[in-house]
Design a protein that fits this description.
There is one protein chain. With 416 residues, this protein is of the alpha/beta class. It contains 19 helices and ten strands. An eight-stranded parallel β-sheet has the order 3-10-9-8-7-6-5-4. The protein has a two-stranded antiparallel ribbon with strand order 1-2. β4, α5 and β5 (108-114) form a beta-alpha-beta unit. α6 packs across α8 and α13 (272-288) runs antiparallel to α16. It starts with 6 loop residues before the first helix and ends with a helix.
Length: 416
């Protein structure tokens, strides 16, 4: 460190220089194949936005989920100054260790609380949970506490939560209150859309920061919310910026069953021909635009959001050092004409591969009240983001009707 070698550069150089470790670790071996001679190249945040009226200048690329202390530290070293976390992420202890010894005022930390009857809706319960977050984060205050995945105006207005947050503000333990939304979680409980809930939250006046869905395919609802936030001076952080990836999952499934000489799972039997057509369409697109992997279109998708000044920060999950380079190098970059053509072509040819996060337009069409929006979001985690275990755990604890009811359905949600 005294000789000017950053922690990230040192660790990456050590890892890449160890033939024995590479041979025994398929993840690093895979990265080495696709990695160019940029292993020690430093990347830095180049642009910062006003985060609404909070008075904080936020990096245009922020840190979403990460449970790796050195990776979090490396992101901070690169200029990232916004960390998104939550009770349910189980990564607050890692964040607490990563920020230790740093200038606390230079880092904006957000946490989130799910509001559920089973965990209690009284003020005292939220105060206890808040203090536990402080303990895990090893900090005296939290910049923003959000309602996690508020899927109704009723949840947004939970009296116990707001009373607790008012107390935390008086005790100087909290600066701002925020809200995140993934759309409808369970249509049997609420069918209110992201647009409905977040518009109400914007007009409510108690929320200073939003975490919402916005990308080049699903941008109509998000654009409306961003416009309202601009008028109200609300800070905006964006998730689900990359709707690409499902094609790879479908293709992998088809290739695997073909190679094994097996019949596809009964669940897919009636849909196999359609999947083939969709996959072939995806192959055509990938070949035409020379996309050996989804990295190029992922970068274009992120630039699409970065080029909207009303979207203050793009929240990116960074689980390893390579992802730090991948995402932070996009900071301050512009959407090129080629990017626009690529995204337009993908949207025209392959947008059917992506179930729009937070739109909820199909729920009324489902006779069984299956939470399509939620299940397809978990599927996106699994197939597009590579979070297999996380997605499986989320699906396992999902209450109410599940996808097994879809096996013999004619596809009302798809028609919708």
């Amino acid at each position: 460190m005294k000789e000017g070698l950053s922690r990230r550069t040192f660790v990456k150089s050590s890892v890449l220089g160890s033939a024995g470790l590479l041979a025994g670790n398929s993840l690093f071996a895979k990265e080495k194949k696709v990695k160019k001679v940029e292993a020690t190249q430093e990347v830095k945040i180049k642009h910062y936005y006003d985060l609404g009226k909070t008075g904080f200048k936020v990096s245009d690329i922020s840190l979403g989920y990460s449970n790796n202390v050195p990776v979090i530290q490396a992101a901070l070293d690169a200029g990232v100054n916004y960390i998104d976390t939550a009770e349910s992420y189980k990564n607050q202890p890692a964040v607490g260790k990563a920020i230790k010894g740093r200038d606390r005022k230079s880092i904006f930390i957000t946490s989130k609380m799910l509001i559920e009857k089973k965990t209690g809706l009284e003020k005292e319960g939220f105060v206890k949970r808040f203090n536990q977050c402080l303990k895990e984060l090893q900090t005296d205050y939290i910049d923003c506490m959000m309602i996690h995945s508020a899927d109704s105006v009723e949840v947004m207005n939970t009296p116990g939560f707001h009373a607790a947050m008012d107390q935390m503000k008086k005790e100087k333990k909290l600066k701002f209150v925020g809200i995140s939304n993934h759309g409808t979680m369970n249509p049997m409980v609420s069918k209110e859309t992201m647009e409905t809930v977040l518009t109400a939250a914007a007009n409510d006046g108690r929320f200073s920061v939003f975490l919402l869905t916005y990308n080049f395919i699903q941008n109509n609802h998000g654009k409306k919310i961003l416009d309202i936030c601009k008028k109200k001076g609300i800070g905006t952080t964006i998730m689900k910026v990359n709707p690409v990836g499902t094609y790879n999952g479908i293709k992998k499934y088809l290739d695997k069953t073909k190679k094994a000489g097996k019949k596809p799972n009964k669940l897919y039997a009636d849909s196999l021909e359609r999947f083939k057509k969709v996959a072939e369409q995806g192959q055509w697109f990938a070949k035409k635009y020379k996309l050996e992997n989804s990295a190029e279109i992922r970068d274009a998708a992120i630039r699409f959001v970065l080029n909207n000044p009303d979207a203050h920060s793009v929240s990116c999950s960074m689980r390893n050092f390579d992802q730090i380079d991948q995402f932070i190098k996009l900071s301050g970059t512009n959407l090129s004409i080629y990017d626009k053509k690529t995204l337009a072509a993908y949207k025209d040819g392959c947008s059917q591969l992506y179930c729009r996060h937070a739109c909820g337009e199909c729920h009324d069409a489902c006779p069984e009240n299956v939470p399509v929006n939620t299940i397809m979001r978990y599927n996106h985690y699994y197939s597009a983001q590579g979070k297999e275990k996380f997605a499986l755990k989320k699906y396992m604890v999902l209450e109410g009707p599940k996808a097994d009811l879809c096996q013999n359905c004619e596809g009302f949600c798809e028609s919708s």
